[in-house]
Amino acid sequence: MKDFVFTPEISAAAPALRVAVVEADIVNGETTDALWAEISRAAALLAGTPMEAVNKRPAIAATRAAYKAAGKEPNRYRPSAEALCRRCVKGLELYRSLAVIDLINLLSIQSGHSIGGFDADKIEGGLLTLGIGRDGEPYEAIHRGQFNIAGMPVIRDAVGGIGTPTSDNDRTKLSADTRHLLMTVNMYDGGGTDAECESFFDEMRRLLVRYSSAENIEIKIFNAK
Description:
By secondary structure, the chain is an alpha+beta fold. It is built from six helices and ten strands; from the N terminus they run βαβααααβββββββαβ. Strand 5 and strand 6 (145-146) form a beta hairpin.
């Protein structure tokens, strides 16, 4: 299990933040029709609801507040969970990908948490650090190319940034060859009550086992304060 620390700057910007680091052995195949049906049902629950309700969801509101405190405009650089939920509200089709990527998206739609998904074998070193992006810091975002992460919460390994709530880095992205998953659940609102957290992680385990044949699932929660 990777260790995880917070810089003083991110702890000050998001004092309620907790990050769950999840590791598992997986098979990352194509998304099945059964998983896509679950995603479609979750999206349908949001379709047609008021758009302003998206940003009022506790997890999304807390993530947006952290962006503002860190120095980033969340309306320009939307956290991934918010972007997914906005597509659902508009009734737009979601993108179908690999199983683990899509089940992460499903968990984000359900919870409002922006969740990072990484190939653990591509991560350098045993320590992950959550801090704030710097001016000019290089970051190759998936499907975006060079991405301005200045003032944005960013998780770094020994080489550099691997994930933000808006987009993960291409260097450590999940692929069909991924066999060792690392996920970071960014709970800027603290994750809710103990019962809500337990329900979320039960759902995560169910999805990982059913749709990626996950084994050896480990979860450890780290606190910003």
